[in-house]
Amino acid sequence: MAGLVIDASVALAVMLPDEADSRAEKAMKAAAREHALVPSHWLLEVVNGLLMAERRRRIPDHTRHALLESLTGFPTEFDRETNNRARRETAGIAVAHKLTIYDAAYLELAMRTRLPLATLDEGLRKAALREKVRLFI
Predict the structure, then answer these.
(1) Averaged over 18-36, what is the pLDDT?
(2) Is residue 137 part of a domain?
(3) Residue 116 in contact with residue 110, Cβ under 8 Å?
(4) What is the pLDDT of residue 29?
(5) Which of 7, 60, 103, 121 is placed for a possible disulfide with 99 were both Cys, Cβ 3.0 to 4.6 Å?
(6) Please, which contacts does 20-26 make with residues 24 or more away whose CB atoms are closer than 8 Å?
(7) How is 45-93 classified by DSSP, letter by letter?
(8) CA distance 103 to 45
(9) What is the Cα–Cα distance from 83 to 85, expressed in whole angstroms?
(10) Which domain holds residue 107?
(11) Taking a C-beta distance cutoff of 8 angstroms, is the pair 5, 106 a contact?
């Protein structure tokens, strides 16, 4: 399977002007060519990030709708196993690396599928390196 695991920090860095990052743009372009595999909670995290940006006036009111629309057609595959793995594998990863369960789900998915992980989250990056998971960015 070709592709990569993309976390919410990457998608938000592409959508939020004050978080712009060329590494995130590179990852999203690569995922558009291949495909992005994400845990089942990914869209919730992205929408929440945009809601928080809107509330904090980092983006104009109602910009979130247009930003979310930009994801329409993006080749995202939602992993069906994420929830089944939460109690054991993912929780174990979260404990071992002091990650949130949400971040641990990205790492578990990358480990299980042997796909590179695209993240801008430093704690998640360090955990991925400790687990010998390839980082895309």
Answers:
(1) 93
(2) no
(3) yes
(4) 93
(5) 103
(6) 21/120, 23/120, 23/137, 24/118, 24/120, 24/137, 26/137
(7) HHHHHHHHHHHTTSS-TTHHHHHHHTTTT--EEE-SSHHHHIIIIIHHH
(8) 10
(9) 5
(10) 4-130
(11) yes
